[in-house]
Amino acid sequence: MGGREQIALSRLGSSMEPPHGLRRFRFRPVHGSTKGRRASLSHSTKSRNPSPTEMSAEPWSSPKDQVAAEVAPSARTPPSQDHEQEQRPDKLCLDSFWSEVETITQGSGYADLDSTRRDSKHSEEGEQEEQWLADAGLSNLISEDSEDVDKVLLLSTLTRAQAEAVQRRLDSYTLTLRKKNKPPPRDVRDIFNAPITQTLLPESQHSEDPAQHSMACVGKTSLSAAAAEQQRGAPKEEIFFTDVAYCEQAVIFLKQAKLPQNGSQRRKEDGTLPRVICPKCRLGVTRIQDLSHADMKKVRQLALIDMTALCDLLGLEVKRHKTGKRKIPESTLFGVPLSTLLENDQKTKPHTSTPLFLQAILSFLERKGVDSEGILRVPGSQARIKLLQQNLETGFYQGRFSWDDVSANDAAALLKKFIRELPTPLLTAEYLNTFSAVRDITDLKQKLHMLNLLILLLPEPNRNTLKVLLEFLSKVVSREKRNRMNLWAVATIMAPNLFLHKAVPSRLTEGAEKGQAEKAADVMRLLIKYQELLWTIPNFLMSQVRKLNENSNRRYQFYDRRFKNLLKKIHTDSKEKAGKNVLESCRTVKIQVGDLMNGTMEFQLNVGSQASDLLAQFQRQLLRSPDNGKGKMRRNGSTVHPDCALFEVGGNIGEHCLDPETHLLDLYNSNPGGEWVIKLRPRL
């Protein structure tokens, strides 16, 4: 996917080769008791100079969390107690968790729980696999009318573990068809062995070599590096790779965990959350909002395949639920689907991405609630909450509702009520149990891998709503010194509101109370602390999307096998041209800044050129432009210029808003057919 900064991580001497035969094997992690796992941490750490890796890497922890972590402990709380609170929830947190569960189960909508859950059921035999193939963009694998070239386009981008996950779903679907006496679909391996495939992918036999090299690096660093750091007394850190598919990283991790020499080095989880370091890619960080809808659809398809492969490797048995049709209450706010709320709100505010009511209540809580002691945990008055809900339903959209006399605790109760009374879970009926199953994964990085993929799979309204909610919860945690709500406290009180829903059966309350509460809160804790990381698109998915687009752009050529020799020549020429691209010194950039400025500009490329340099040159030209007066004027007379960003458009991507730290020469070599356009940054 273009050039990358070299990350030197060679603390292990042995090299791990990715396994080649995983077809019929399932790896199940051994789950031990949570008791006795707490490791007492030493408070004296040795100072050390950062390594080149750390200096060129970005920590993915919330700035609010970092502020909260730097706050000095209370005079009444010894440091050891502060550390203990970070490691595990206290009795007050656990009591609050089960009190919240009781409030939810006794609330409105749970009276007819059995009939509601009868409408939410597992898919019938074979139907679930068929739906999975459709969601993954592979429904043509079971269609007799589609051509081999249609079937191979997406399959050609998959890794070995991902392809095996697809094969398992096809095998299950085939078995169901045989029971129903229907002809089975073709095997994935038959499609790859077809002559048309060899024409489509002349380089496919060597495509896995870079991945194998990267996976060897992952294998070298995952266990022993962490153990070495701990032995030196360094702060807890995790290196988060996104260049290699998460399922392939799991293959290496599981194989490595079986080695005798690694059994004693594996670090035990003690409840404290480390600083996560993500090595920077020279093509920059891609966030979810940076891609076009067409490319995000492909990201979701590929993310579903990778998540399914990861679940298979970790032995997570997760079945998706489907919800039956439910009568929508005659309401304007509570119990209304997110899509309906947004559709109505966008008539008033066209570019809004979250419900206006949610924006209003979060804005109020940020002004008057984040410093309130016990916010979210202290219940409001049920009578007042009921009256407030009625007034909001009748007066919010008419502008007749005032927040002046609303208490912070009542508003927090309304927020939780709004979330849990959505007709379908905020985390969706399809993936709610998968989110819950993350608590059964033992390794932190694999938990984050799974959550990252699940966030990508959420529908856009749900994902945007979850993001603003988590941003608010992070602000609450950052004011812990005033509101007495640390990360564990916020996580334990909010977990039931996200993971319990009347439409989907849940295992949240099964088993030992303490263990279940702590595991559910731990998933919520990860969502809050690492939200910035979870809302990014991994590099390996970006590479797969680019490859898929390249193959789609060329697909018309492959219907005639006479093009085979020509394609080999084109492939050879493209490699030669890639080398020549490095010599390109000047690039024409289009400018499409609304009605303010349109045209082109020339930009001189060199090895160190970044997107921020190009935008700085554009701003200098804008200042010298005679149309400079078209900017908005401040009260002091200065001009506010439009917020612009650099986009790559076309080639092997639809439209991509670039990270300011993107190295432009690497981008050009990665996508020489794409155009660079300066446009207004999209509103969030």
TrEMBL record:
Alphabetized UniProt keyword annotations: GTPase activation
Bias kind Basic and acidic residues: ranges: 114-125
Gene Ontology CC: cytoplasm
Ranges for region Disordered: 1-89, 109-131
Biased composition (Basic residues): 21-40
Residue stretches of biased makeup (Polar residues): 41-54
Entry superkingdom: Eukaryota
Gene3D superfamilies referenced in this protein's UniProt entry, alphabetically: Rho GTPase activation protein
Annotated Rho-GAP domain residues: 336-535
Name this polypeptide is given: Rho GTPase-activating protein 40 isoform X1
Taxonomic lineage of the native organism: Eukaryota, Metazoa, Chordata, Craniata, Vertebrata
